[in-house]
Design goal:
Elements: E1 11-18, E2 21-33, E3 37-43, E4 50-51, E5 56-57, E6 62-68, E7 73-79, E8 85-93, E9 97-102, E10 108-125, E11 131-134, H1 136-142, H2 144-147, H3 149-167, H4 173-176
Parallel strand pairs: 1-10
Antiparallel strand pairs: 1-2, 2-3, 3-6, 4-5, 6-7, 7-8, 8-10, 9-10, 10-11
Length: 177
């Protein structure tokens, strides 16, 4: 399905898992799925305002989220309610899994996109002047390097790749095209 389709985009549920527990789940519209990359749009799912100091996520913000089945990250374009781009928030994750969703009655109720957060994040401001690696201390404290060294190495490589892309003149434009 393309973003320009006249059809109503199908709904799904994004489920972000961290350390084996659901961190957050929220509804989203499926914009595209080409077999490798899944693109969804969702409104800010947090309660109230989340002020990071360098950006505020707040009611009315819209996230266009890009997930990959073969990459260890997700890139989220963040727009304010007026449509202006705030920047890109990137999560280092295990590759995304899109699966059918079943309700308690075991009847089909859409799909769910499950993503396991590996603590590392990156922020790129809309003007590209600010690129920040985030939560490296949380990642170190998670113990992933000891329990799953392969995943830890993939996570660090993913953060390095995201930073390299973010520092380019076009930022994430080529990746998200």
């Amino acid at each position: 399905m393309s973003a320009n389709s006249a059809e109503v985009p199908p709904r799904l549920e994004v489920v972000l898992v961290k350390a084996g527990r659901t961190k957050i789940r929220y509804p989203a519209e499926l914009l595209r799925d080409d077999g490798e990359r899944i693109v969804v749009r969702a409104s800010w799912a947090g309660s109230g305002v989340r002020d990071f100091g360098f950006v505020r996520f707040e009611p009315g913000d819209v996230f266009t989220e890009y997930y990959w089945r073969g990459r260890w990250y997700a890139v989220k374009e963040v727009r304010a309610a007026d449509g202006s781009v705030k920047g890109w928030y990137c999560d280092v994750t295990r590759p995304a899994v899109l699966a059918p969703f079943r309700s308690n009655a075991d009847t089909a109720a859409g799909a769910k996109l499950v993503v396991e957060d590996l603590d590392l994040d990156l922020w790129r401001s809309a003007d590209g002047r600010e690129v920040r690696r985030l939560d490296e201390d949380e990642f170190a404290a998670s113990g992933l390097a000891g329990t799953d060294p392969r995943a830890a190495a993939a996570a660090v490589a993913a953060l390095d790749e995201l930073e390299s892309l973010a520092l380019r003149p076009g930022g994430f434009a080529e990746l998200l095209a």
